[in-house]
Amino acid sequence: MDELIRVTPDREKTKSMAKMVEITLEMIKTINAERFSSNIVKEYYDVIRELMTAVLLLDGYKTQGEGAHKKLIEYMEKNCRQLTGREISLVDELRITRNRIAYDGFFVKEDYLARREAAILDIISKLRSLVKDRAG
Asked: What is the H or E stretch that residue 6 is in?
């Protein structure tokens, strides 16, 4: 994959990233989903992105610049069989939704989150396991 930058795997950095993920997940639990569903969706996407970045880093790669998040998702689709096609599609949908929230002032409805939260948490669980397995 030409779009990826080769780097030295960094287990210490991935440990720090995993710790930040845990703190963010704790914070999400304290947010009122009815009032702040857009914020929660954004945070969940950031957690997923951070975990995917950790997987890439453990594999000796990183992405940067325009389209970096899309490249990250494409890498996961090609190299991480733990995630199903449906889960990859959801991650990409979250990426697009997060961009709409961040750049267009888009508000998601509470039912959007309610319909997807279980699947989002499954993805996060799989990615946490993947990071743990690859970190050794």
From this structure: strand 5-6
Per-residue pLDDT of the chain (136 residues; tens, 9 = 90+): 457 999 999 999 999 999 999 999 999 999 999 999 999 999 999 999 999 999 999 999 999 888 999 999 999 999 999 999 999 999 999 999 999 999 999 999 989 999 999 999 999 999 999 999 998 7
What is the rounded distance in angstroms from the CA atom of residue 55 to the CA atom of residue 11?
10
- Partners of 6 in beta bridges: 61
* CA–CA gap between residue 117 and residue 115 (Å, rounded): 6
Torsions phi, psi for 88 (to 5 deg):
-60, -40
> What is the model's pTM?
0.95
Task: Report the half-sphere exposure of 66 (CA within 13 A, side-chain side).
Answer: 0
For the chain, domains (ranges, CATH) are 5-135 (1.20.120.330)
Residue 62: helix, strand or coil by DSSP? strand
